[in-house]
Amino acid sequence: NFATNSGSGVLASAAARLESAGLVAKRANAADRRLLDLTLTDAGRALMARILPVADAWQAEVLATLGPDAE
Predict the structure, then answer these.
(1) Which residues pair with 39 in a beta bridge?
(2) Which end of the chain has fewer beta carbons closer than 10 Å to its terminal beta carbon, N or C?
(3) Residues 42-59: b if buried by 16+ CB within 10 A, e if exposed
(4) Cβ-based neighbour number of residue 69 at 10 Å
(5) Contacts of 1 by beta carbon, 8 Å cutoff, 6+ apart
(6) How far is CA 11 from CA 16, 44, 60, in A?
(7) What pLDDT digit, counting tens, does each position of 21-44 carry?
(8) In whole angstroms, how far apart are CA 51 and each of 3, 14, 24, 33, 47?
(9) What DSSP element (H or E) covers 2?
């Protein structure tokens, strides 16, 4: 679960788009209803499983060009 306390309309809009795409489920936080809890759905977890290896490989490639002290 991911809880956020942001007044940003951008964040709310992104959460709504992710929910519409079926990638996250959102609900009010039980302890503080001003907050939202975002949880990855099965489809969201499947997407993360596909894109994380690509992101990790890209990051490793970029860091390799910066040298050993960059990490």
Answers:
(1) 25
(2) C
(3) eebeebeeeeeeeeeeee
(4) 5
(5) 37, 38, 39
(6) 9, 17, 28
(7) 999 999 889 999 888 899 999 999
(8) 22, 18, 16, 32, 6
(9) strand 2-4
